[in-house]
Write a structure and sequence with these properties.
Trimer_LpxA-like_sf, Phenylacetic acid degradation protein PaaY, alpha/beta, 2 helices, Hexapep
């Protein structure tokens, strides 16, 4: 669902995928290879929202701001299921954990990891490569090279997902029985602990 608002029409690169059950409104610019999942709302009705290349905004996320503001999710930013970004900027290749809330005027630095269900207060400036958790969120340590490698691998899956969706996602009627030749899905991603074992 793509909506114009007061003369602003969203700009979405053809390589990106916005699910039909997502809503993108007004002054929104979405770069290459971005994924926007079902239930996500990206509301550029009061200000400008820019998603740089390779950003993913997963299911049921909300991105909005106060009037007259402009926010940017830099290249490779990864916004987990149910997160809310309200008037905040996200740095390159950062990870926002599921159901986190990032408030107005905040800035999450490049390659930061924000733990699931964290609350980042308004005007918080999070330094690059910080692991930040809690309510209110606090920096608990620096992100390791290993953590960033794992995060980057996960984001690459989401950067491939738009092409996969364009190629194979179709509305269908459900089957009523499990077919004998039901395809088996490939196991192609590891948890952080599994990733650490393969890297050591």
């Amino acid at each position: 669902m793509i909506y114009s608002f007061k003369g602003h029409i969203p700009v979405i690169h053809e390589s990106s995928f916005v699910h039909p059950f997502a809503a993108v409104t007004g002054n929104v610019i979405i770069g290459k290879d971005c994924y926007v999942g079902p239930g996500a709302a990206i509301r550029g009705d009061w200000g400008e929202i820019i998603l740089e290349d390779g950003v993913n905004v997963q299911e049921n996320c909300t991105i909005h701001m106060f009037p007259g503001k402009s926010i940017r999710l830099q290249e490779g930013a990864h916004v987990g299921h149910g997160a809310i970004i309200h008037g905040a900027n996200l740095g390159r290749n950062c990870l926002i954990g599921m159901n986190s809330v990032i408030m107005d005027g905040s800035s999450v630095g490049a390659e930061c990891v924000v733990g699931a269900m964290s609350f980042i207060k308004a005007e918080t400036q999070v330094p690059e490569r910080s692991l930040i958790v809690g309510n209110p969120a606090k920096v608990v340590k620096q992100v390791t090279d290993e953590m960033i490698a794992w995060k980057t691998a996960g984001t690459k899956l989401y950067q491939q997902l738009p092409a996969d969706c364009h190629e194979s996602l179709r509305a269908v009627e459900p089957l009523r029985e499990i077919p004998a030749n039901r395809p088996v899905q490939e196991d192609f991603y590891k948890t952080l602990n599994e990733f650490k074992k393969t890297e050591s």
